[in-house]
Amino acid sequence: MSRFxxxxxxxxxxxxxxxxxxxxxxRAPEFNPVANRRVAVLPFVPTYDGRNLPTSxxxxxxxxxxxxxxxxxxxxxxxxxxxxxxxxxxxxxxxxDTRLTHAGLFADQAFRDASVQxxxxxxxxxxxxxxxxxxxxxxxxxxxxxxxxxxxxxxIDVDRGEVLVSATVGEEDGGGxxxxxTGFTDLAVQPILALSSANLIKLGRKVANGLASPFLxxxxxxxxxxxxxxxxxxxxxxxxxxxxxxPGQVLTVAAQGAAGMRAEWVFGTEGVRGSMSEVEAGVYVGxxxxxxxxxxxxxxxxxxxANARGYRSRQTVAHKPLNTTTTSSTSQx
Length: 333
Prior knowledge:
Mean pLDDT: 76
Number of domains: 2
Shape: elongated
Low-confidence stretches: 1-18, 51-68, 177-196, 326-333
Number of helices: 6
Number of strands: 17
CATH superfamily of the largest domain: ABC-type transport auxiliary lipoprotein component
């Protein structure tokens, strides 16, 4: 004899079908997924109300190593992590956000009203990617807890203003009756366990991977492993923040990424650059001797990796702009 009343059994059948996923994608005919493009992923904009969310909804994402506090932060970073597997030179989010802030375009998502040409010039990129999070939600349905995440992205060419790639992906899952109860204990406990932010993170990761999928090359797109930009995990230098460089000082620059690449440090938009050495597999170090006469005012230092076919990735050390009161040309060791 069944341990459940007819009403509970009916509710179970109703709720079992609630888990689902949905997606739609577009690629412009001229979009080449293995072409090396410099792109900026703009802050993802939330359009969900968040009224049903638990207090703590987002955990650390280990790949980035920073604390993120909202669904849109997490999805943006998870999307970038997946996108970095392709041929794109992705501008660091810290640099993007800083440039938007200085231009008065960060607060209240003012960048959404700027032209893509203006954004392209501001960020020195070939394309910009807009993202919108339409669902990041927890819903309670009696003995059932449902989680839903949905977002969309668009890559727009800054020269032509045309959409190159777009995607919308949604995922839904839950716990409780549709999770397959084994008794009344499960009915009482499972919805509570389902409140963990890990459920939203799991769905968020699936959504981020789905959003990035149309941007990435398939096996048919790649006939050579070198026809994509090398990955670049991080770039840094050893000058303490807020301290001016002194004439004669040696600045050390370090980066980690794909092994066997050509590595260079690059100063600012003028492209003053110098070589870095691969001291072990995938670890690059360069030293810059600061000469007398060099003037730096909040100058940005970047590291660039390039493979044998010329595909490049660049990452900016955006959190440590450099200053000095000297005035001559840069030399290197």
